[in-house]
Amino acid sequence: MAEKKSLSAVEEAELSKEPLYRLGAKLLKNRKPVTTIATLFTAVMAYHALGMQMTTAFNDLLPYRHPFVQVHFKFATQFGGANNVNVMLKVEKGDVFNKEVLKKIYDMTQAMDRVTGVNHGFPTWRSTVRTTKGITSSVF
Prior knowledge:
4 helices, two-stranded antiparallel sheet, 6% strand, single chain
């Protein structure tokens, strides 16, 4: 029976590199087909990468099992997203087109403009106007 020869650490390292050296030699020997395949693969991946869109949806970041978030999803269609603030000014008598009410709306708008983090460029007004005949219409 042949005895197993104990290898030194250097010899073991050389033997473990052997498969990698063989792979490297084969890749260099066939460098033209390897380069062609790598170029084609890169071109296909680049083509598909052009069609990708990077988007972030705020709702995807919310813990959807949390009770507060479930309430938000329940009423989101009526009140907008989680990063919206809804303010309502109700007129008891008359309509919104008088000096007092318009001053209140202006003051509310100015107060919201002083809040940090508010997107000042995109205010959305939704008002309900009641006519004297009792017909209600929404103005967006």
